[in-house]
Amino acid sequence: MLDLEMNEITSLLAMLTSLIAVIVGPYVTFKVVKKQITVPLRHKWAEELKELIASFLVECRELVILGEDGVLDKVKIDRVTFSKLLLLEEKLRLTLDDNQAKHHELLELIDELVDEAYHGAGDLVSFGRKCQGATKIAKEILDEEWIDITKS
After folding, report:
1. Angle between helices 101-119 and 6-66 (to 10 degrees)
2. Which of 78, 45, 61, 42 is nearest to 151 (CA)?
3. 136 neighbors 145 (Cβ within 8 angstroms)
4. Coil, helix or strand for 123?
């Protein structure tokens, strides 16, 4: 077997420690920096999504509240309100990921709500239920995102 002296063993261990530090150090640093950058960005995205969804649903619920005789009347939906709905719909479309099932489901509901708001003559109860459904799905999306953020 090898006949090594204590000086040689110490030198060998020092070299191995240095080699490990050179390899492991940058990897650990990369992981820490990535987490420090990603978590705040994801948190900001979730907060912006929450604001967009809330704004959209407030506009929709106003239509329900202001509707008469249980009917969504397009004559009573002014251009400004409809333009707001369209703007919020487009912002949500750009913020959500249509490839994820719940995001896609929420976008479909949003499309239906905007379509019904534009064409009018819809049942306010049905419209209100779709608003509640959108709220439920949005909450699920935000809850999942929050869990992912806290795990990071």
Report:
1. 20
2. 42
3. no
4. strand
According to the per-residue pLDDT averaged within each range, which of 30-44, 52-66, 117-131 is highest?
52-66
C-alpha to C-alpha distance for 10 and 119, rounded to whole angstroms:
82
- Give the three-state DSSP class for 72: strand
H or E element that contains 142 = helix 124-151
Signed CA dihedral, 66, 68, 73, 79: sign only: negative
pLDDT at 44 over 80: yes
State the chain's mean pLDDT as an integer: 85
Beta strands in 17-100 (DSSP E): 71-72
Q: Hey, is 122 helix, strand or coil?
A: strand
Whole-number pLDDT of residue 89? 96
Residues whose CB is less than 8 angstroms from the CB of residue 118 and which lie 6 or more positions away in sequence, other chains included: 74, 77, 82
Quickly tell me which residue has 């709220």 as its tokens: 135
CA distance 114 to 85: 7
